[in-house]
Here is the input.
Amino acid sequence: MHRLEGKVAIITGAGAGIGRCTAELFAREGAAVVLTARGPGRLAALESSICGAGGRALALPGDVRSSTDVRRVLDRAVAAFGRIDILVCNAGISDRHTPTVRVTDALWDEVVATNLTGVFYYCRETLKHMVETGSGSIVNVSSIGGKYANSGAAYSAAKAGVEALTRNIAIQYSGMGIRCNAICPGPTPTEFNTPEKLATFDQEFREICAKHTDMSVGESEVIDQANAILFFASDESCYVTGQVLVIDRGMCL
Here is the structure.
């Protein structure tokens, strides 16, 4: 406990799934958590829950695809807590396993804007604050789709870009006390993976991808992903940067 005591963390996509679980875990570990996502209702409820349990939380709705929103969230977070020690770029959307020839311009733009450009915006703006303090940890949420390309074309490309961006930032800032790492979750029970949502996926390409993974090992849980994020965010990994950790129960070995 208290591994993040006195730290301030921004978590994108905090309204549900891995982001929500990470926010709750960070708060229990002593961090002040800045919660951001597009849906204000869930953020407000999470803020109330964390504060009611004795933690510190601030809900700031915003769209990762908007650089204006990103700067506004950062400015308000710093005004409220004085600094930013940790950034968790978790916000993302699915492309429903859509293969290349079926990816429309609109789908490509939406997936890349949310899953890659949004990560870039948050990293760029947060790094400005971390450089001033000479410390910080960025944890980006990629995917086994980015690592092994076993998802839709747009999703795989965007998440692979997140890994490259992670390593690039690690190279640039390793001498400044700032670390940047990423996790690659395998299938995890979130709103993206409900039976209803999976039924909308391209079943032909999903079956092709499944031939290259061992689905029998089962899903990971959101807390498994949150624990990995906590490790990279905490001082326990103070000598670790530029690394990408796969959490998929070995289904892609």
The CA atoms of residues 109 and 154 lie 9 Å apart. The radius of gyration is 17 Å.
